[in-house]
Automatic annotation (TrEMBL), chain A:
Protein name, per record: Sulfur oxidation c-type cytochrome SoxX
Gene symbol of the encoding locus: soxX
Domain Cytochrome c residue range list: 45-156
Keyword Ribosomal protein part of the UniProt annotation: no
NCBIfam families: thiosulf_SoxX
From TrEMBL, chain B:
Gene of this entry: soxA
Cofactor dependency: heme c; heme
EC number(s) given by UniProt: 2.8.5.2
Subcellular location: Periplasm
Residues at which heme c 2 binds: C200, C203, H204, C245
Domain called Cytochrome c: residue spans: 84-170
Alphabetized UniProt keyword annotations: Electron transport, Heme, Iron, Metal-binding, Periplasm, Signal, Transferase, Transport
Enzyme class, UniProt record, top EC level: transferase
Signal peptide segment: 1-21
The name this protein goes by in its record: SoxAX cytochrome complex subunit A
Length: 157, 284
């Protein structure tokens, strides 16, 4: 398999893309229960931009699988649970862990890991169907993860 | 076949209040008011309980799309079938022969073919798809060039051949020499490819009936292939569909005609054993 490409890609992510104070995907510290305690950027996110990450197809596309009853987004999916009150059920550290790599919180879940760069089978170059190249990076940037966490934190009932 | 069982199942389904708008519907598929197609069947034993009912993708489409498939005059896929019928009767290649010269009336000689393919081929020593068999005739018996996998003429011909089995139930063999190919297909089916780490089963086994954004997920059955899609307004091959689905997991996909997709086609077809052939089906 494309192990070399992958390692290279990870190195690129680590080497070039990380702004100062930003935790690279492979350096994220996750607790045994899947929590990520500290902000990936060292700063709080912006909930409005987080809503964009949540709803835009080209960003997180969370609406492909989730619905929030108070929000008017066209055609929400229902592969995942409704996110109403998500912030009542989960702490910020837990929410961050779910977005970074939900498989630690929900074993075997179909929800993608948004801030992870290794361990994939036949990773592609976005939606081209071609193999990943050295532009391969996590699905969301650290800022985008923090923004979507800030947005999720507003989901209280 | 299971006609009695089917009516019992639909009666039970009707009685169940939990079946919301999201599930498969309970309509009945009869093409041209004549060909009854089994669209819900008991799962084959080799499914090992993975599905409690095998359901055609037709049930997951809306009434308008369903209706297009119910009448050959409305079904644009039939244009491809007609094209291929003309090709069938036309001599091509250095041997100066047409398909009809060897196989006569397709309605007779091709009946039942789609229901049992892909199939292990003794002579070739491998599993072959309908398109591969067609190319074998073209290159070895007609002296004509092989058609590109899933390209227009190949898909039209596969649809024409498939349409001769409409209403017959899928019954591909998975034992004996076909077994290792089936095993390989099964492994591919359950592998979580790409950056999104989704397998065929993530969408079509665990989540059929659910919505992934605006898409109503079916069981991803192949009993209707080649299928006419309203979205791209042409007949589509099963391998092209597999390719699109794997691409959508942000993966490096496989190619139509590859060993991987031949094995996967056999495996997916076997999951649909018992479903009636719908070729050419209509989907969105």
């Amino acid at each position: 398999m494309k192990l070399t490409t992958l390692t290279f890609a990870a190195a690129m992510v680590a080497g070039t893309a990380m702004a100062e104070g930003v935790v690279a995907p492979q350096d994220v510290v996750m607790s045994e229960y899947g929590e990520v305690a500290t902000s990936l950027t060292g700063k709080p996110g912006d909930p409005e931009r987080g809503f964009e990450v949540y709803s835009k197809r080209s960003l997180g596309n969370c609406v492909a699988c989730h619905e929030i009853s108070t929000l008017d987004v066209a055609w929400p999916g229902n592969v995942g649970p409704m996110l109403d009150g998500a912030a009542d059920r989960w702490s910020e550290a837990e929410l961050r862990g779910i977005v970074v790599n939900s498989k630690k919180t929900f074993e075997g879940t179909v929800m993608p890991a948004y801030y992870r760069v290794d361990g994939f089978i036949r990773p592609g170059n976005a939606y081209t169907g071609k193999a990943a190249d050295d532009s391969f990076g996590p699905l969301l940037t650290a800022e985008q993860v923090e923004d979507v966490i800030a947005f999720l934190s507003t989901l209280k009932e | 076949m299971n006609f009695k069982m089917l009516s019992v199942v639909s009666a039970v389904a009707l009685a169940m209040p939990t079946l919301g708008a999201a599930g498969p519907d309970d309509d009945t598929l009869i093409i041209n008011e004549e060909i009854e197609v089994v669209t819900k069947a008991e799962p084959a034993e080799h499914l090992d309980g993975a599905l409690y009912e095998v359901i055609s993708g037709w049930h997951f489409r809306n009434d308008d799309t369903q209706a297009i498939e119910m009448d050959d005059f409305d079904n644009p896929g039939m244009l491809g079938v007609e094209n291929a019928m003309a090709t069938w009767n036309t001599a091509e290649g250095s041997a100066g022969k047409s398909c009809a010269d060897c196989h006569g009336d397709a309605a007779e000689s091709m009946k039942g073919v789609k229901a049992t393919y892909p199939k292990y081929d003794e002579k070739a020593g491998t599993v072959m798809t309908v398109q591969m068999k067609v190319n074998e005739c073209r290159t070895e018996r007609m002296g004509a060039e092989a058609w590109k996998y899933d390209a227009g003429p190949a898909i039209d011909m596969e649809a024409m051949i498939g349409s001769q089995s409409r209403g017959m139930q899928m019954n591909v063999a998975i034992d004996g020499p076909a077994k290792p190919f089936w095993e390989k297909g099964k492994e591919i089916y359950y592998t979580r490819y790409g950056q999104l780490e989704l397998s065929c089963a993530s969408c079509h086994e665990q989540n059929y009936g659910n919505m992934i954004r605006a898409d109503h997920l079916s069981q991803g059955q192949t009993n209707g292939f080649p299928t006419y899609r309203l979205k791209n307004a042409k007949l589509n091959g099963a391998h092209s569909r597999f390719k699109g689905c794997i691409r959508d997991t942000r993966a490096e996909t496989f190619s139509p005609g590859s060993d991987e997709f031949i094995a996967l086609e056999l495996y997916v077809a076997s999951r649909g054993n018992g479903l009636g052939v719908e070729t050419p089906s209509v989907r969105n």
